[in-house]
Amino acid sequence: MMSDSQSEFYRNLIQARYVLWEQHKKKLGFIRDRVPHLTDEEKLLLRQYEGCFKCRRFFVDCQASTCTKGFPDPLQYHSLTMADVDIARARRDKELIQAARSYAPVSQSGIGEAGSAVGSAMRHTQVVGDHDERLRRTARRVKLVKSQAAYTTTPGFESA
């Protein structure tokens, strides 16, 4: 039978070994407790595609100093690539198209019944006021998306 001092000694020994093993795993890279530093390529991608250096997302309005999302999960993080930009762009374009549809009812020709969806978005922006910069950016992006989509939504247009 062990005395209390012996059992405490073994308990402390086991705890010390555990702590040392955890420190060793961190040194070897088994456990990440923070996100790795951005590489030059990742920084370039974030600059070119309106990204945030803190949350590391593309096409966002925040910057590292004003980001409310915080750093990404270190265990789920992977290096940023052009594929991530393409995914973010597709997500953004989908949101812009949905925003354009919500501004004005769209007829079969792709143009809103009360004018274009962009015009409706701009009128809505004027009503809301100057505090909604994000809506203005969305309206500008909608204009680009609508001009690109005009070729595919025009009735009678047949691609060669």
Blueprint of the fold:
Layout: H1 4-28, H2 40-48, H3 82-103, H4 117-128, H5 133-153
Distance between the termini: 89 Å
Class computed from helices, strands and strand pairing: mainly alpha
Radius of gyration: 26 Å
**Helix-strand sequence:** HHHHH
Discrete helix count? 5
Query: How many runs of DSSP E, i.e. beta strands?
Result: 0
Q: Note poorly predicted spans.
A: 110-115, 124-131
Quick one: biggest sheet?
A: none
Shape: elongated
Question: Which strand-content bin applies to the residues?
Answer: under 5%
Mean of the pLDDT scores? 74
Please bin the fraction of helical residues.
55-70%
Number of domains: 3
Summarize the structure in words.
This protein is mainly alpha-helical and 160 residues long. It has three domains: 31 residues; 46 residues, no CATH class; 73 residues, no CATH class. The chain is built from five helices and no strands. Helix 3 crosses helix 5. 12% of the residues are buried.
Keyphrases for this structure?
160 residues; mainly alpha; 3 domains; 5 helices; elongated
Brief sketch in words of this structure:
By secondary structure, the chain is mainly α. It has five helices and no strands.
